[in-house]
Amino acid sequence: MESQVRGGTRWKRFAVVMVPSVAATACIGVALAQGALAASFSVSGQSFKVTTDELVGEGFSQYGALDEGYTLTGKKTVHPVAVSAFKSATIKNMCQSVVTPNIPVLGNVSLMLRAGQGAPVEAENLYIDVADLNADATFTNIDIGVAAKDASKGPGMKGGGEQANPYGFAQQAEKAVLKDVKQTAWATTAGTFKLSGLKMSLSTGVKECY
Fold first, then answer.
1. 107: closest CA among 202, 210, 209, 187?
2. What is the number of structural domains in the chain?
3. Which of 18, 45, 69, 121 is most buried, taking the most CB atoms under 10 A from its CB?
4. Number of helices followed by number of strands (H, E) in the chain
5. Whether the Cβ atoms of residue 156 and residue 86 lie closer than 8 Å to each other
6. Strand 162-163 and strand 48-70: pairing?
7. If we measure between CA atoms, which residue out of 119, 96, 121, 124 comes closest to residue 182?
């Protein structure tokens, strides 16, 4: 399960996530395509899927939390998540997709976003609330079992609408490298995103990154 790789720890199918929300990014896609955008936002109510060839994150921490949100019909929901936080991250060949079901006349509508096929996507103070992820992961100088409030290598606990125990289980690392990422997440917040080569498309039916 665990082996040392170049000073880090490699785990297969390790539940961390590190790419921004397709729904939030789509709303501000034009600004992102033109350069870096300083913003803080979150999206809930629908999960979204993401794939990426490689993510390199500096200053990583992760802890458990509950996300409160709403369904598309306005019902309140609560989702258990693993919050993955990075001081900074670069992402290669990113695909993000979200499907909105049962739109009158149109039926299902899929939104797909691609970026980072040339220059990588860049993010600062990135928080992702993940439900499921498969990847090959390598961590450098990892600490497992610290209290969430004491995870000092990352950007700190997110706060806001999440419910997390500051004394609960957490882990942290100086650096995280994830390859062949496939993940499902519920929400994200970030300080800055810069998406190089942003391409966005809408289509009827179900079309997802994986």
1. 202
2. 1
3. 18
4. 2, 11
5. no
6. antiparallel
7. 96
**Least confident piece of the model among 27-36, 69-78, 131-140, 182-191:** 27-36
Residue 24 clears pLDDT 60, i.e. is over it:
no
Domain contains 209: no
26 — pLDDT class (breaks 50, 70, 90): very low
Helix (H) or strand (E) holding 95: strand 76-103
Q: How do strand 48-70 and strand 37-38 relate by DSSP bridges?
A: unpaired
DSSP state of 150: G
Question: Could you tell me if residue 122 is inside a domain?
Answer: yes
Question: What is the domain range of residue 180?
Answer: 3-204
Return the closest-CA partner of residue 82 out of 10, 180, 169: 169
Token digits for 134? 């498969």
Residue 186 lies in a domain: yes
**Is residue 178 over pLDDT 90?**
yes
Rounded Cα gap, residues 85 and 172, in angstroms: 9
On whether the CB atoms of residues 79 and 63 are closer than 8 A, the answer is no
